[in-house]
Protein backbone atom coordinates (compact mmCIF):
# COMPACT_ATOMS: atom_id res chain seq x y z
CA UNK A 1 0.00 0.00 0.00
CA UNK A 2 1.08 3.57 -0.70
CA UNK A 3 2.15 5.62 2.33
CA UNK A 4 -0.13 8.69 2.36
CA UNK A 5 2.35 10.82 4.33
CA UNK A 6 5.08 10.01 1.81
CA UNK A 7 2.74 10.92 -1.04
CA UNK A 8 1.98 14.31 0.56
CA UNK A 9 5.70 14.90 1.03
CA UNK A 10 6.39 14.09 -2.62
CA UNK A 11 3.68 16.45 -3.83
CA UNK A 12 5.63 19.25 -2.19
CA UNK A 13 8.54 18.63 -4.60
CA UNK A 14 6.61 17.92 -7.80
CA UNK A 15 4.84 20.22 -10.22
CA UNK A 16 1.84 18.07 -11.09
CA UNK A 17 0.66 20.66 -13.64
CA UNK A 18 3.77 20.15 -15.77
CA UNK A 19 2.78 18.90 -19.23
CA UNK A 20 5.36 16.10 -19.29
CA UNK A 21 4.17 14.86 -15.89
CA UNK A 22 0.51 14.85 -16.96
CA UNK A 23 1.36 12.98 -20.17
CA UNK A 24 3.27 10.38 -18.14
CA UNK A 25 0.32 9.88 -15.76
CA UNK A 26 -2.07 9.45 -18.69
CA UNK A 27 0.29 6.98 -20.36
CA UNK A 28 0.62 4.94 -17.16
CA UNK A 29 -3.14 4.84 -16.63
CA UNK A 30 -3.95 4.11 -20.27
CA UNK A 31 -1.88 0.96 -20.73
CA UNK A 32 -3.67 -1.49 -18.39
CA UNK A 33 -7.03 0.05 -19.35
CA UNK A 34 -6.27 -0.55 -23.01
CA UNK A 35 -5.20 -4.17 -22.75
CA UNK A 36 -8.04 -5.11 -20.40
CA UNK A 37 -10.71 -3.53 -22.60
CA UNK A 38 -9.29 -5.05 -25.81
CA UNK A 39 -8.74 -8.50 -24.27
CA UNK A 40 -12.23 -8.67 -22.81
CA UNK A 41 -13.70 -7.51 -26.11
CA UNK A 42 -11.77 -10.28 -27.87
CA UNK A 43 -12.93 -12.84 -25.32
CA UNK A 44 -16.53 -11.82 -25.89
CA UNK A 45 -16.53 -11.43 -29.69
CA UNK A 46 -13.42 -13.24 -31.05
CA UNK A 47 -13.20 -10.30 -33.45
CA UNK A 48 -9.40 -10.04 -33.42
CA UNK A 49 -9.00 -13.76 -34.01
CA UNK A 50 -11.25 -13.47 -37.05
CA UNK A 51 -9.38 -10.44 -38.41
CA UNK A 52 -5.93 -12.02 -38.00
CA UNK A 53 -6.98 -15.52 -38.99
CA UNK A 54 -6.21 -17.28 -35.70
CA UNK A 55 -6.22 -16.63 -31.95
CA UNK A 56 -2.45 -17.03 -31.75
CA UNK A 57 -1.75 -14.46 -34.48
CA UNK A 58 -4.18 -12.03 -32.84
CA UNK A 59 -2.52 -12.53 -29.44
CA UNK A 60 0.93 -11.90 -30.89
CA UNK A 61 -0.34 -8.72 -32.52
CA UNK A 62 -1.86 -7.44 -29.28
CA UNK A 63 1.35 -8.35 -27.44
CA UNK A 64 3.37 -6.29 -29.92
CA UNK A 65 1.06 -3.31 -29.38
CA UNK A 66 1.35 -3.66 -25.60
CA UNK A 67 5.16 -3.74 -25.85
CA UNK A 68 5.09 -0.60 -27.98
CA UNK A 69 2.82 1.16 -25.50
CA UNK A 70 5.14 0.14 -22.66
CA UNK A 71 8.05 1.74 -24.53
CA UNK A 72 6.00 4.92 -24.93
CA UNK A 73 5.15 4.84 -21.22
CA UNK A 74 8.81 4.48 -20.24
CA UNK A 75 9.76 7.35 -22.54
CA UNK A 76 7.07 9.59 -21.04
CA UNK A 77 8.16 8.57 -17.54
CA UNK A 78 11.77 9.53 -18.29
CA UNK A 79 10.81 12.83 -19.91
CA UNK A 80 8.70 13.71 -16.87
CA UNK A 81 11.70 13.11 -14.59
CA UNK A 82 13.92 15.25 -16.80
CA UNK A 83 11.46 18.13 -16.69
CA UNK A 84 11.47 18.28 -12.87
CA UNK A 85 14.25 19.01 -10.38
CA UNK A 86 16.27 16.39 -8.59
CA UNK A 87 16.23 16.05 -4.84
CA UNK A 88 19.74 17.18 -3.90
CA UNK A 89 19.85 15.18 -0.68
CA UNK A 90 19.42 11.99 -2.70
CA UNK A 91 21.90 12.72 -5.46
CA UNK A 92 24.61 10.46 -4.07
CA UNK A 93 26.30 7.22 -5.06
CA UNK A 94 24.41 5.17 -2.46
CA UNK A 95 21.06 6.29 -3.86
CA UNK A 96 22.14 5.53 -7.40
CA UNK A 97 23.40 2.03 -6.57
CA UNK A 98 20.35 1.28 -4.41
CA UNK A 99 18.17 2.20 -7.36
CA UNK A 100 20.31 0.10 -9.68
CA UNK A 101 19.91 -2.92 -7.39
CA UNK A 102 16.13 -2.48 -7.16
CA UNK A 103 15.87 -2.17 -10.96
CA UNK A 104 17.98 -5.32 -11.36
CA UNK A 105 15.64 -7.28 -9.07
CA UNK A 106 12.65 -5.92 -10.97
CA UNK A 107 14.21 -6.92 -14.27
CA UNK A 108 14.82 -10.42 -12.91
CA UNK A 109 11.14 -10.76 -12.00
CA UNK A 110 9.96 -9.46 -15.38
CA UNK A 111 12.25 -11.69 -17.45
CA UNK A 112 11.70 -14.80 -15.34
CA UNK A 113 7.92 -14.23 -15.49
CA UNK A 114 8.08 -14.03 -19.26
CA UNK A 115 10.16 -17.21 -19.49
CA UNK A 116 7.78 -19.06 -17.16
CA UNK A 117 4.60 -17.95 -18.98
CA UNK A 118 5.78 -17.69 -22.58
CA UNK A 119 4.57 -14.99 -24.97
CA UNK A 120 0.89 -15.95 -25.05
CA UNK A 121 0.80 -16.57 -21.30
CA UNK A 122 2.28 -13.14 -20.69
CA UNK A 123 0.14 -11.25 -23.17
CA UNK A 124 -3.37 -12.40 -22.23
CA UNK A 125 -3.47 -15.54 -24.33
CA UNK A 126 -6.18 -17.01 -22.09
CA UNK A 127 -8.55 -14.26 -23.28
CA UNK A 128 -7.95 -15.57 -26.82
CA UNK A 129 -8.75 -19.13 -25.80
CA UNK A 130 -5.05 -20.10 -25.58
CA UNK A 131 -5.15 -21.67 -22.14
CA UNK A 132 -2.28 -23.06 -20.11
CA UNK A 133 -2.45 -26.68 -18.97
CA UNK A 134 -1.90 -25.79 -15.33
CA UNK A 135 -1.15 -22.81 -13.11
CA UNK A 136 2.48 -21.71 -13.13
CA UNK A 137 3.96 -22.05 -9.64
CA UNK A 138 7.68 -21.95 -10.39
CA UNK A 139 9.89 -18.91 -9.72
CA UNK A 140 9.04 -16.05 -9.60
CA UNK A 141 5.42 -17.07 -9.00
CA UNK A 142 6.61 -19.09 -6.01
CA UNK A 143 7.79 -15.81 -4.43
CA UNK A 144 4.88 -13.43 -5.12
CA UNK A 145 1.72 -13.05 -7.15
CA UNK A 146 1.79 -10.99 -10.35
CA UNK A 147 5.60 -10.75 -10.48
CA UNK A 148 5.49 -9.17 -13.94
CA UNK A 149 3.57 -6.18 -12.61
CA UNK A 150 5.56 -5.74 -9.42
CA UNK A 151 8.84 -6.33 -11.22
CA UNK A 152 7.92 -3.55 -13.63
CA UNK A 153 7.02 -1.29 -10.70
CA UNK A 154 10.39 -2.05 -9.09
CA UNK A 155 12.18 -1.07 -12.31
CA UNK A 156 10.48 2.32 -12.27
CA UNK A 157 11.24 2.75 -8.56
CA UNK A 158 14.90 1.97 -9.14
CA UNK A 159 15.02 4.26 -12.16
CA UNK A 160 13.57 7.08 -10.04
CA UNK A 161 16.13 6.58 -7.28
CA UNK A 162 18.96 6.50 -9.79
CA UNK A 163 17.80 9.93 -11.00
CA UNK A 164 17.06 11.22 -7.47
CA UNK A 165 13.67 12.19 -8.87
CA UNK A 166 10.68 13.00 -6.63
CA UNK A 167 8.54 13.17 -9.80
CA UNK A 168 9.70 9.65 -10.67
CA UNK A 169 8.76 8.35 -7.22
CA UNK A 170 5.30 9.88 -7.50
CA UNK A 171 4.86 8.37 -10.96
CA UNK A 172 6.00 5.01 -9.59
CA UNK A 173 3.17 5.24 -7.07
CA UNK A 174 0.80 5.84 -10.00
CA UNK A 175 2.22 2.71 -11.68
CA UNK A 176 1.63 0.68 -8.51
CA UNK A 177 -1.95 1.96 -8.18
CA UNK A 178 -2.75 1.27 -11.84
CA UNK A 179 -1.44 -2.28 -11.55
CA UNK A 180 -3.34 -2.85 -8.31
CA UNK A 181 -6.58 -1.84 -10.03
CA UNK A 182 -5.71 -4.01 -13.05
CA UNK A 183 -5.17 -7.05 -10.81
CA UNK A 184 -8.57 -6.52 -9.17
CA UNK A 185 -10.22 -6.73 -12.60
CA UNK A 186 -8.00 -9.34 -14.24
CA UNK A 187 -7.75 -11.87 -11.41
CA UNK A 188 -11.45 -12.85 -11.07
CA UNK A 189 -12.02 -12.73 -14.84
CA UNK A 190 -9.06 -15.02 -15.56
CA UNK A 191 -10.15 -17.42 -12.82
CA UNK A 192 -13.61 -17.58 -14.40
CA UNK A 193 -12.08 -18.44 -17.79
CA UNK A 194 -10.30 -21.42 -16.25
CA UNK A 195 -13.39 -22.45 -14.27
CA UNK A 196 -15.29 -22.62 -17.55
CA UNK A 197 -12.46 -24.71 -19.00
CA UNK A 198 -12.69 -27.17 -16.10
CA UNK A 199 -16.47 -27.40 -16.47
CA UNK A 200 -16.03 -28.15 -20.16
CA UNK A 201 -13.52 -30.90 -19.42
CA UNK A 202 -15.75 -32.51 -16.79
CA UNK A 203 -18.80 -32.43 -19.05
CA UNK A 204 -17.03 -34.45 -21.76
UniProtKB/TrEMBL annotation:
It is a multi-pass membrane protein. GO terms for molecular function: phosphatidyl-N-methylethanolamine N-methyltransferase activity; phosphatidylethanolamine N-methyltransferase activity. It catalyses: 1-hexadecanoyl-2-(4Z,7Z,10Z,13Z,16Z,19Z-docosahexaenoyl)-sn-glycero-3-phospho-N-methylethanolamine + S-adenosyl-L-methionine = 1-hexadecanoyl-2-(4Z,7Z,10Z,13Z,16Z,19Z-docosahexaenoyl)-sn-glycero-3-phospho-N,N-dimethylethanolamine + S-adenosyl-L-homocysteine + H(+); 1,2-di-(9Z-octadecenoyl)-sn-glycero-3-phospho-N-methylethanolamine + S-adenosyl-L-methionine = 1,2-di-(9Z-octadecenoyl)-sn-glycero-3-phospho-N,N-dimethylethanolamine + S-adenosyl-L-homocysteine + H(+); 1-hexadecanoyl-2-(4Z,7Z,10Z,13Z,16Z,19Z-docosahexaenoyl)-sn-glycero-3-phospho-N,N-dimethylethanolamine + S-adenosyl-L-methionine = 1-hexadecanoyl-2-(4Z,7Z,10Z,13Z,16Z,19Z-docosahexaenoyl)-sn-glycero-3-phosphocholine + S-adenosyl-L-homocysteine + H(+); 1,2-di-(9Z,12Z-octadecadienoyl)-sn-glycero-3-phospho-N-methylethanolamine + S-adenosyl-L-methionine = 1,2-di-(9Z,12Z-octadecadienoyl)-sn-glycero-3-phospho-N,N-dimethylethanolamine + S-adenosyl-L-homocysteine + H(+). Pathway: Phospholipid metabolism; phosphatidylcholine biosynthesis; Lipid metabolism. One of its GO terms (cellular component) is endoplasmic reticulum membrane. One of its GO terms (biological process) is phosphatidylcholine biosynthetic process. Its EC number is 2.1.1.17, 2.1.1.71. Keywords: Endoplasmic reticulum, Lipid biosynthesis, Lipid metabolism, Membrane, Methyltransferase, Mitochondrion, Phospholipid biosynthesis, Phospholipid metabolism, S-adenosyl-L-methionine, Transferase, Transmembrane, Transmembrane helix. The chain crosses the membrane at residues 20-37, 95-124, 165-185. This is Phosphatidylethanolamine N-methyltransferase. It comes from Dryoscopus gambensis.
